[in-house]
């Protein structure tokens, strides 16, 4: 009887390309052959490869790789949308990050991608009522990657977190689809209240390095937040904001700022 995933794997262009990239990587650099085989080529599907990679990064003396991998695989079985989102994240990074030349790279090397996939499993656990296990995943993601995303936060698909150092996303934050952010971004609250207190980021938003978005405010679709800005008020769709505190300095400059990754202010902006 054929493996239940064999037909899926044969028509999965993302996974097929990742395997081709992996084979080429081994040819180019035989010294990483064991690493690439264990992480990619040994596995029949992208789900298996992702579960292995997440477990390899998050496991510790406190929870073995075998146990972490079982948790991840069970989450993927219960919610196939987690892997669909992972594929969208992979393609987003490949299309937007000029340092990404192969679909293989984010799985092997990019902590932004790895951290988001581990968060996605933690969020699934949170929604299943497995709060302590979700907190464990959050803790390990923070320790290993320097990325602290509360498992209750809601992230869409096609997320790119470039460099991914010192990212903080709070409990009631919502991030839409096709959002790009750089290192040291904070989506934080402004007080100790337990109610809805974190930002709501629309689809297609670009958030520059070091930007802080604070409070239960809405950042409109396809807007841009300039690097180093502190955003304390809602931002309309398709606008660029900059400064401390941030103010509107112009239009977004294009239809999809998160895809173009253009951080430069136009001649109409100051």
From TrEMBL:
Pathway: Amino-acid biosynthesis; L-cysteine biosynthesis; L-cysteine from L-serine: step 1/2. It comes from the Bacteria. Its EC number is 2.3.1.30. SUPFAM superfamilies: Trimeric LpxA-like enzymes. CDD domains: LbH_SAT (cd03354). InterPro entries: Hexapep, Hexapep_transf_CS, LbH_SAT, Ser_AcTrfase_N, Ser_AcTrfase_N_sf, Ser_O-AcTrfase, Serine_acetyltransferase, Trimer_LpxA-like_sf. The keyword Metal-binding does not apply. GO terms for molecular function: serine O-acetyltransferase activity. GO terms for cellular component: cytoplasm. Keywords: Acyltransferase, Amino-acid biosynthesis, Repeat, Transferase. Pfam families: Hexapep, SATase_N. It is an enzyme of class 2 (transferase). It catalyses: L-serine + acetyl-CoA = O-acetyl-L-serine + CoA. One of its GO terms (biological process) is cysteine biosynthetic process from serine. Residues 14-118 form the Serine acetyltransferase N-terminal domain. Belongs to the transferase hexapeptide repeat family. PANTHER family: SERINE ACETYLTRANSFERASE (PTHR42811). This is Serine acetyltransferase. The gene is cysE.
């Amino acid at each position: 009887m054929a493996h239940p995933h064999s037909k899926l794997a044969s028509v999965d262009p993302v996974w097929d390309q990742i395997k081709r990239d992996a084979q080429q990587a081994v040819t180019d650099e035989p010294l990483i052959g064991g690493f690439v085989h264990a992480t990619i080529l040994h596995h029949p599907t992208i789900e298996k490869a992702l579960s292995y990679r997440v477990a390899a990064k998050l496991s510790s003396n406190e929870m073995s790789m075998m146990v972490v991998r079982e948790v991840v695989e069970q989450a993927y079985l219960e919610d196939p949308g987690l892997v669909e989102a992972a594929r969208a994240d992979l393609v987003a990074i490949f299309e937007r990050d000029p340092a990404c030349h192969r679909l293989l790279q984010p799985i092997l090397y990019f902590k932004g991608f790895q951290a988001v996939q581990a968060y996605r499993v933690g969020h699934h656990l949170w929604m299943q009522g497995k709060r302590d296990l979700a907190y464990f995943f959050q803790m390990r993601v923070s320790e290993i990657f320097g990325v602290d995303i509360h498992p209750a936060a809601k992230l869409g698909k096609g997320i790119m977190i470039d460099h991914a150092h010192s990212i903080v996303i709070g409990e009631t934050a919502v991030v839409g689809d096709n959002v790009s952010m750089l290192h040291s971004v904070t989506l934080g609250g402004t007080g100790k209240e337990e109610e809805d207190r974190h930002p709501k980021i629309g689809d297609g938003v670009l958030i520059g390095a070091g930007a802080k978005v604070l409070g239960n405010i809405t950042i409109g679709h396809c807007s841009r937040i300039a690097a180093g800005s502190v955003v304390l008020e809602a931002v309309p769709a398709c606008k660029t904001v900059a400064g401390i505190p941030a103010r509107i300095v112009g239009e977004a400059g294009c239809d999809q700022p998160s895809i173009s990754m253009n951080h430069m202010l136009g001649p109409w902006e100051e």
